[in-house]
Write a structure and sequence with these properties.
By secondary structure, the chain is α+β, with helices and mostly antiparallel strands. Helices cover 46% and strands 30% of the residues. Keywords: Membrane, Transmembrane, Transmembrane helix.
């Protein structure tokens, strides 16, 4: 009895590992395509693979759907319908938001990813080396890349004071953090102004000490207020894509918003394609 139970657990573990390998294979294909589309630039590639929603979609939604499909094909439908069920699963996570051209396009991409997932799962069932490569080696490699900053700066000249930051550059592709210490009961009101000489896209957002995005309150057309929850170091992060020009950031430490005060819309960051 103990031997049979152990054998059953090993079989379940092996099946689950194959599904994780299928997820790893499909997300790897997506990342490779993304790398080629972004012109093989490491900064933009790492920005893409840093979206945790993609990881959750493949390793969460994808694996769960695969388990459900196995159950349905064993108890409800014929195994011949397995490919169709994977296609439906690929469409399903997008069509729940409604039927329009955006969700149809996204669903088509999802269906292709689901088929690649199924292909990876099939290969994993035939090769242990493939299973461990896609289930562990490649995901760990991508997660390691996320830890590096591949920002490129050329002729970068920056000056920071207690209340301002100014930088000029011939080329800026990536991000730059401007740390600001915020005490209890205080917040930061700031303005960001880009001077762009080549029409490249740019933007900014705010992150806390843990690296999480922080919301902002718009106090005027060109002024933002950081929504401080705890005192600490907050970072105004300016970003650019092949940008040439300069950026000016000015801030002041002010009293935190209290209940009943007038405030405008909240947002986590802003970007411009001007």
């Amino acid at each position: 009895m103990v031997v049979n139970e152990k054998s059953r657990l090993q079989k379940v573990g092996s099946l689950f590992l194959h599904k994780v390998a299928g997820a790893g294979f499909s997300i790897t294909i997506l990342f490779i395509i993304s790398f080629l589309i972004t012109g093989r630039e490491l900064y933009e590639f790492v920005e893409t693979i840093s979206h945790w929603s993609l990881w959750l979609l493949f390793f969460g939604y994808g694996v769960i759907c695969s388990i459900v499909i196995d159950f349905l094909c064993s108890n409800v439908f014929k195994r011949d319908l397995k490919v169709l069920l994977y296609i439906l699963a690929g469409y399903g996570c997008f069509l729940i938001f409604g039927l329009n051209y955006v969700t149809i396009i996204a669903g088509t991409v999802g269906a292709l990813c689901a088929l690649i997932f199924y292909g990876g799962l099939t290969l994993a069932e035939r090769s242990k080396a493939f299973t461990y490569l896609c289930a562990f080696v490649l995901p760990i490699l991508f997660l390691a890349l996320i830890q590096f900053d591949f920002t490129e700066k050329k002729q970068w000249e920056a000056v920071q004071t207690d209340s301002s930051f100014h930088a000029t550059f011939h080329y800026f592709n990536g991000r730059h953090h401007i740390p600001i210490a915020v005490e209890d009961g205080k917040t930061v009101q700031f303005q960001v102004k880009f001077t762009v000489e080549n029409g490249a896209s740019h933007g900014y957002h705010v992150r806390d000490e843990a690296g999480d995005l922080v919301g902002m309150t718009e106090t005027s057309e060109d002024s933002q207020l950081i929504n401080v929850e705890d005192p600490g170091i907050y970072h105004i992060v300016v970003t650019g894509r092949h940008l040439e020009g300069s950026v000016q950031v000015d801030w002041e430490i002010v009293e935190a918003f209290r209940e009943g005060q007038n405030r405008h819309k909240h947002r986590a960051g802003t970007n411009s394609d001007k």
